[in-house]
Amino acid sequence: MALKNRIGTAVYEYDGDVITLRAELDAINALVENTGIPFYEYMTNHITDPQSMAKIFYYFQSGSDYSENEIYAAFFSDIEVWQDSQTTEKLAKVGAILMGVDYQKRIKDVKGNTKKKPEPQV
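Above: the chain's sequence. Below: its structure in token form.
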């Protein structure tokens, strides 16, 4: 039996710097061990500043071996990152991918656009 790969992979680019992130079990366990906070709780309640997002990028990087400081300097040291709506939307999409959330559905739910298609008439 072949196993399907459902691990979310996100590619994030900011100002010419690119990083690939994957929500693999080893990365999740390393984050939990380092922070003492369960993964989904960290993702939903503890990403409040650039340092906490840099920590996610550090543990979830794939195909690279950047230090947490290098990630912070490349992607988060510019305070305007947190003030630009396009950038924060990109970061939210990355978080959703890593958590296995259907980002498009989540956006619809947040905006209150949850109309369901009418049931087909028989």
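The first helix runs from residue 25 to 35.
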